[in-house]
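Thread: "does anyone have the structure for this chain?"

Original post by V.I.:
We have the sequence but no experimental structure in hand. Need at least a predicted one for the grant figures.
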Amino acid sequence: GLAAKGIASFRTARSMLETYIGRETSRKVLSGQVRRGSVDSINAVLIYADLKGFTNLSDTIERHDLVEMLDQYLDRMVIPIEAAGGEILKFMGDGVLATFELTSLDEMALQQTCSTALDVARQMAEGVEQLNQKRREKNKPVMDLDIALHVGEVMYGNVGSETRLDFTVIGPAVNEVSRIEALCDELDARLVASGDFVRTCADAASSLRSCGYHELRGVREP
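Reply from O.Q.:
Generated one for you, tokens below.
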């Protein structure tokens, strides 16, 4: 009985951690990677997606309806990412930060991962548009989705204070992908990818149009 209880308790803890911090992150935490400052460098494709208009709607919609609406949109954003093997790192209010780790630097593997991320981004956009269509038919408020794609090296691990840690990604690539997402309004585009992403992903060049060079706040090179 004690053995069964121990196994059940571990499975419950693992399930809870996967729900709150993600599959791969929970595996690292359960394996004992909980020391502050313990980080690994990984190469990854980053997806940063942000809902437009949520802040304005939050002042006009009942709390229960607002949360229900946000959950509906987040479903359309998260399900394609997880189905393709991506990792949800953060829910930032009405935004999502996710990664697809580049486990191999082989050119074919890099292109495949980037192609997967691009396909996922399109599925997210299509899912949100389908949801918007259903909500419009019921005269309910809708939101648009902006998506940024980038690729680079990030530091992945424990960051925080002595009493509160966060298992997250940090580094220039993370800052850059959030700045790229901010260009969506300026460029009147729902999806913007970095030049680094396009050069890595063979499928992207033929299906995306160039928007030229742009200055990103806090980033030296355009």
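V.I.: this helps a lot. The chain has a mean pLDDT of 85.
O.Q.: and The first helix runs from residue 2 to 21.
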